[in-house]
Amino acid sequence: MVKRALTEKRPWLLTSVAAAAAFFILDGQPIGGVWLLLLKGAAAALLSVYAWQRHRSTDAKLLALVMAFSAAGDMLMELSLVQGGAAFFLAHIAAIILYLRNRRHDAAFSQKAAAAALLILTPWVCWLLSEDIVIAFYGAGLGAMAAAAWTSRFSRYRVGIGALLFVISDWLIFAGSGAYSDYAILGDLVWPIYYLGQFLIATGVIQTLRKELEAAA
C-alpha cells in the first residue's frame, strides 16, 4: 500500500529515491561520467519538482529553489569544489529565508541554545577539518541554515534532523579531503547521509504545509 501511494500520489519523490539509490550503487562504475553526473543531480532535482507539485505556496517554491540549487551543487561538486560549494551556499541562503519566514516564536531555551551551538560550532569545525578560510566562510552559511531550520516551525524530527545530517555530510567531505583522507569509509557515508537529510527536509516542509492546507479546508 505504501509503495502504491508513492507511485500514484508522489511519483517524483519515488523517482528521486530511485535516482539516489542508483547513484550510490553505480558511483565509480564505468557507465559514463556524464550519465553518472546527471543521475546524481536528478536526486535533488526531483525533490525540487516534488516540492513544486505538492504545494503552491511561496514557501514550497522556496523549498523547490533550495533543492534546485542543491542539484546544481551535486553536479558541480564533481567538476569543481569551489563551484559546487557556491551553488550549495546559494541553497543555504534560500533555505535560511524559508526557515526565517517560518520561525517558531515559542521556541524553548534548549532549542535556542542548540541553534546557537550550530551557528558557532559548524564553521569552527569546518575550519578545524580544512584549515581553509573559504570553507570556514561556507560553514558559516551552513551553520546558519541548520540553526534556522532547528528554530523553525517545521518538524525538528524531519527538517531539523535533516539539516543536521546535511552538516554532518559536509563535515565528512572536509574530513575526507584533509587529515582523514586515508579513511575511505568517510567518502562512502557522504551520499546516503546527505540525501537522507535532503529527503527529510523536503518531506518535512511539505508535510507541514499540506496539513495546514487541509486544516484550512
Write the layout of secondary structure elements.
Layout: H1 2-9, H2 11-26, H3 33-54, H4 58-77, H5 81-101, H6 109-130, H7 133-150, H8 156-177, H9 184-216
Helix pairs in contact: 1-2, 2-3, 2-9, 3-4, 3-9, 4-5, 4-9, 5-7, 6-7, 6-8, 7-8, 8-9
List keywords for this structure.
mainly alpha; 217 residues; single chain
Q: Summarize the helix and strand pattern as letters.
A: HHHHHHHHH
CA radius of gyration: 17 Å
The poorly predicted ranges are none
Summed up, the domain count is 1
State the total count of DSSP E strands: 0
Quick synopsis:
It is built from nine helices and no strands. The protein is mainly alpha-helical and 217 residues long.
Describe this structure in words.
By secondary structure, this protein is mainly alpha-helical. The protein has one domain. Helices cover 84% and strands 0% of the residues. Helix 4 runs antiparallel to helix 5 (81-101).
